[in-house]
Design brief:
Blueprint: H1 16-27, E1 35-41, E2 44-50, E3 53-57, E4 62-68, H2 72-80, E5 82-87, E6 105-106, E7 111-112, E8 115-119, E9 126-128, E10 133-145, E11 148-160
Length: about 180
């Protein structure tokens, strides 16, 4: 399906374009965090901005991330079988904008898109070095969901990263960005 195409179903008698706009405004009101997902395969790595991240189960600890199928990170998660989620501080709202497009890796400088990254100890997936925390996951299942794939990852490592423990978590509404709907 081409990007931007209006997708039904629509209520009887509704104008599809008007209804689509209303539906987007409603779905954008869902409270949401905003995170950075990192993945690696071989010598290739990427970090991407994402807001579709959630804990799925307590036992085992499972995390779900939804990644658009044509995204570079999608291919890296599939090939590498892992991903790492960076939980960002509200002070880093400008940093996450660096990851809305595929990033350039400078392994010798330890940067992606000019931002310092670290590697998760278990999977080697990258995470933002200045993040409040990271959650490293090994992919257990995938589910095709329209334009995206839901990757279900088992938490294999988690830790506090570079920010002070009391730092406030970045939320979508802090960024003036909107995605989804």
């Amino acid at each position: 399906m081409p990007r931007g195409e209006i997708v039904g179903p629509f209520p009887s008698g509704a104008d599809p374009e008007e209804y689509d706009q209303l539906r987007r405004r409603v779905l954008w009101r869902f409270p949401s965090g905003i995170y950075v997902i990192g993945a690696r395969s071989g010598g290739e790595a990427n970090l991407m901005t994402a807001n579709w991240v959630t804990q799925l189960a307590l036992e085992p600890k499972l995390l779900g991330v939804s990644v658009e199928r044509h995204a570079r990170t999608h291919a890296l998660v599939l090939a590498g079988g892992a991903f790492c989620v960076s939980v960002m501080s509200r002070d880093d709202r400008a940093v996450i904008r660096r990851f809305v497009k595929p990033t350039e890796l400078d392994a010798s400088a330890g940067t992606l898109a000019g931002v310092a990254y670290a590697e998760a100890p278990v999977t080697g997936s990258p995470f933002v070095a200045s993040a409040i925390a990271y959650v490293d996951c090994s992919v257990r299942e995938t589910l095709e969901c329209g334009s995206h794939t839901l990757f279900v990852g088992e938490v294999v490592d988690a830790g506090l990263a570079g920010a002070p423990e009391g730092a406030e978590v970045l939320r979508m509404e802090d960024t003036r960005m909107s995605y989804g709907g």
